[in-house]
Please model this.
Amino acid sequence: MRVDDAAGRYVVFCKSTFPNELTLDGVRIVVDAAHGAAYRVAPAVFAELGAEVFALGVKPNGVNINQKTGALHPEGTVHEVQKRRAHLGIALDGDADRVIVVDERGQIVDGDQIMALCAARMLAARTLPKRTLVTTVMSNLGLERAVERAGGRLVRTPVGDRHVVDAMRKGGYRFGGEQSGHLIFLDHATTGDGIVAALQLLAIAVREGRPVSELCAEAMERVPQVLVNRSFPRRRPLAEMSHASRAIAAAERSLGEAGRVLVRWSGTEPKLRVMVEGDDERAIRGLAEGIVEAACADLA
Model:
């Protein structure tokens, strides 16, 4: 697929983030560009590095961006990886700042798993400044445990990649991201870039000669996470919701350091979002539902 001068420069930039001594020769990759911004450059980057590329989502018509394709709908990438017996699937979103990966077994790999793997290798190579990874409050507790096990630490921010980037710049950190697949490697780019992130993952897999499924399974063990959302006619500051506050405090005491509780209002609607993590999925679901029921009493 031909690209214009500006796109060509971007292809060159992306390729420059991949180690010179490595190639993607013999690697079969499914690339889903979500009919979006990277519909030309994404397949070109991986093909020029030597991969055999199977392209999806590369026929934008002005209205089909992100429609049943890409990172928001990775089912098509999963199907194509299995059909082509590909080594990897790369699903971008419409503006290509987010990536969801599909491993060779057809399993979805999210941002937490990619961060765990990349951070571990950066820590081992002493290339992670201040031994710190930046992510949001929504990232799984398993990621935090994995980073600490590798000798690093996790800094959490509010939800949103802009908060991650802001914390990175203020703290002098160089790597961060979100569970949703917004990954920021400040040594390469000033914002999230799905292609650059995928290349960092591929570099590890090629250098070590191991399948992505094996690498990611080893990188972190996900802690069960329960999300419960409830819409209400109105919102009320959490500090003024006595029943919910007591339920939250009780849940935190019950979990101790073995879990997390996060309760927040949606930024756009009167919807309460409750997230509870812990090793016992049945128990944490009960805690989450208990917090929601307590909130109902506050807003009755």
Q: What stands out?
A: The two ends are 59 Å apart (CA to CA). The first strand starts at residue 28 and ends at 32. The mean pLDDT is 95. Residues 281-298 form the longest helix (18 residues).
